[in-house]
C-alpha cells in the first residue's frame, strides 16, 4: 500500500483544534517538525526515532556500567565502601519510584519533548558537577539526582514516544531505540576510562557530562513531537519506505490490536500484576550483577584486561538481544520471549557461582547480556501492546516505581552480601532463584481481555 502524502505544514497545524484549551492534551507542535513533516519523502516518525536514539545514548552517563569504572578510583581516593557506592544507585532508584507515578500522566498530556529535554540538560549538568565531588554527601546528591533521571524521565520519555509513533512497527522501533542505549552503555564507560587514563576520575565525569549534552539536548528540544496526530499523521505512516520494507517483512507487522486501558482499568486485571511481578523479579538481577560483575571476576583470578573484554561481551550481547527482539513476529505472544529471557537470567548467575576459566566467564556474561537486552526491549513493548498508548505514561509510571525499587535492591544485595561474606556466591544464588520465578510469571502473563 502506498504511503499517505505528508501534510502541508498548514494542514498539519490545523490538526490541532483551534478551540483546544492550553491545558488540554493537545499541544501546538514545534514549527520545525511541522515544516519537515510536510516536505520529507518518508514518515516523520523515523526522525523521531533517530532523536530518541540520541536521547537514549545520552542517557547512559549515570548507568551502573558507567559508575563501575569509577568504583576503584573513588574507593582509592576516599576510602568509601562498595556498599556506600551501591547505595547511591539504590537511592536514585527510590527517588525515581516516588516521581514516576507523577511523571506518567504528564507524559500522556504533554509528550516526551519537554520531559527528555529536561532530563538531558539536568543529567549533563549533574555529571559535570560530579567532577567537583569532595565528599560522599556531595557525590550522593549529584549522582542520585542523575540516577533518578536515568530511571524515570528517560525511561518514560523514550518508550512513551516510541509507542506513540509506532504500533505495527513497535517491536522494530523499540529494538532500535534500545540498541542505541546499548551503544551508549558501551561507549560511556570507555570514554570515561580514556579520560581517566589521561588525567583523573574527575576528567572522566567531565567527559561523559559534555558528551551527554552534546548528543542529547538539541535534537530532543527541536525535533520531538508528542504523537503523529499532532502534525496530521498516523502511527506507522510511511512505513513502506523502500529501505524499511526490505528490513521488515509483511508478516512481522500482523498481529492483534493493542489494548486500550486507563490506569484504573489496568490495575484491575491480573496481567498487570503478573507483568509487575516479572519486572520486580528480573531487575534486581540486571542491576545487581551489572555493577559487581568486574569485581567478582577479579576475585576469581581473571586478569583485569580479560575482565574488560568480558564486560564488553555482556554489553555486545545485550545489543544483539535488543536487535533480535525487533525481528520477532508480531503474532508471537510476547510472554514467550519474556520467559526465554528469564531462562537466560537464571542460567547466568548459576554459571557465575562456579567460574574457573575465562571461557566460562565469557559464556556467563554472554547469557547475562542476552537476558538484559531482552528485558530492556520486551517489557516496554509488553506494557504498550497489552494496555495501549493513550495512557501508557500513567500505567507505565506505576510499574516503573516497582521497577526502579527492584533495580535499587540489586546492587545493595550484591554489595551487602559481599561485605558480609567476602564473596558474591550468596547473592548470585538468590538472583538465580529470582530468574526462575520470572519464567513462571512471564508464561502466566497472557494478553488481557478488554473490560
How would you sum up this structure, described in words?
This protein is globular. It has 451 residues and is mostly helical. Helix 5 (82-110) runs parallel beside helix 8. The chain has one domain (31-231, 241-444): Growth Hormone, Chain: A (Up-down Bundle), CATH 1.20.1250. It is built from 18 helices and no strands.
By DSSP (H or I, 4+ residues per run), the number of helices equals 18
Give me the secondary-structure category. mainly alpha
Secondary structure: number of strands: 0
CATH topology: Growth Hormone, Chain: A
Radius of gyration from the alpha-carbon trace, in angstroms:
21 Å
CATH first level: which class? Mainly Alpha
The share of residues in extended strands comes to under 5%
Q: Helix and strand string, N-terminal first?
A: HHHHHHHHHHHHHHHHHH
Tally of distinct domains: 1
Instruction: Give the proportion of residues in helices.
Output: over 70%
Q: Quickly give the CATH architecture.
A: Up-down Bundle
Gap between N and C termini: 33 Å
The main sheet comes to: none
Q: What is the average of the pLDDT values?
A: 85
Amino acid at each position: 500500500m502506498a504511503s499517505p502524502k505528508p501534510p502541508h505544514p498548514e494542514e498539519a497545524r490545523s490538526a490541532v483544534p483551534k478551540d483546544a484549551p492550553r491545558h488540554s492534551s493537545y499541544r501546538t507542535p514545534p514549527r520545525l517538525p511541522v515544516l519537515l513533516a510536510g516536505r520529507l519523502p518518508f514518515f516523520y516518525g523515523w526522525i523521531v526515532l533517530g532523536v530518541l536514539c540520541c536521547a537514549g545514548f545520552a542517557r547512559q552517563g549515570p548507568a551502573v556500567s558507567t559508575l563501575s569504572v569509577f568504583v576503584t578510583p573513588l574507593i582509592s581516593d576516599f576510602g568509601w565502601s562498595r556498599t556506600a557506592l551501591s547505595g547511591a544507585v539504590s537511592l536514585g532508584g527510590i527517588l525515581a519510584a516516588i516521581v514516576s507515578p507523577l511523571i506518567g500522566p504528564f507524559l500522556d498530556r504533554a509528550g516526551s519533548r519537554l520531559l527528555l529535554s529536561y532530563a538531558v540538560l539536568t543529567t549533563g549538568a549533574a555529571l559535570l558537577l560530579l567532577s567537583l565531588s569532595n565528599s560522599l554527601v556531595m557525590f550522593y546528591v549529584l549522582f542520585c539526582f542523575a540516577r533518578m533521571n536515568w530511571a524515570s524521565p528517560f525511561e518514560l520519555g523514550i518508550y512513551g514516544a516510541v509507542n506513540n509513533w509506532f504500533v505495527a512497527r513497535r517491536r522494530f522501533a523499540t529494538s532500535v531505540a534500545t540498541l542505541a542505549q546499548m551503544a551508549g552503555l558501551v561507549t560511556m564507560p570507555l570514554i570515561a576510562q580514556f579520560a581517566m587514563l589521561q588525567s583523573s576520575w574527575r576528567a572522566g565525569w567531565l567527559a561523559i557530562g559534555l558528551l551527554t549534552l552534546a548528543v542529547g539536548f538539541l535534537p530532543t528540544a527541536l525535533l520531538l513531537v508528542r504523537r503523529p496526530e499532532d502534525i496530521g499523521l498516523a502511527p506507522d505512516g510511511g512505513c513502506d519506505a523502500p529501505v524499511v520494507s526490505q528490513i521488515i517483512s509483511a508478516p512481522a507487522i500482523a498481529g492483534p490490536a493493542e489494548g486500550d486501558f486507563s490506569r484504573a482499568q489496568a490495575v484491575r486485571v491480573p496481567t498487570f500484576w503478573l507483568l509487575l511481578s516479572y519486572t520486580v523479579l528480573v531487575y534486581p538481577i540486571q542491576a545487581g550483577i551489572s555493577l559487581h560483575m568486574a569485581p567478582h571476576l577479579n576475585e576469581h583470578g581473571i586478569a583485569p584486561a580479560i575482565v574488560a573484554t568480558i564486560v564488553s561481551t555482556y554489553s555486545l550481547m545485550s545489543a544483539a538481544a535488543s536487535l533480535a527482539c525487533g525481528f520477532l513476529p508480531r503474532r508471537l505472544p510476547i510472554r514467550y520471549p519474556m520467559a526465554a529471557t528469564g531462562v537466560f537470567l537464571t542460567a547466568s548467575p548459576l554459571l557465575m557461582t562456579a567460574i574457573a576459566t575465562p571461557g566460562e566467564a565469557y559464556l556467563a556474561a554472554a547469557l547475562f547480556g542476552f537476558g538484559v537486552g531482552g528485558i530492556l526491549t520486551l517489557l516496554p513493548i509488553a506494557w504498550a501492546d497489552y494496555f495501549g498508548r493513550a495512557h501508557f505514561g500513567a500505567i507505565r509510571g506505576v510499574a516503573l516505581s516497582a521497577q526502579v525499587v527492584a533495580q535499587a535492591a540489586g546492587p545493595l544485595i550484591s554489595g551487602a552480601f559481599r561485605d558480609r561474606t567476602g564473596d558474591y556466591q550468596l547473592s548470585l544464588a538468590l538472583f538465580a532463584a529470582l530468574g526462575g520465578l520470572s519464567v513462571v510469571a512471564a508464561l502466566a502473563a497472557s494478553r488481557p481481555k478488554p473490560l
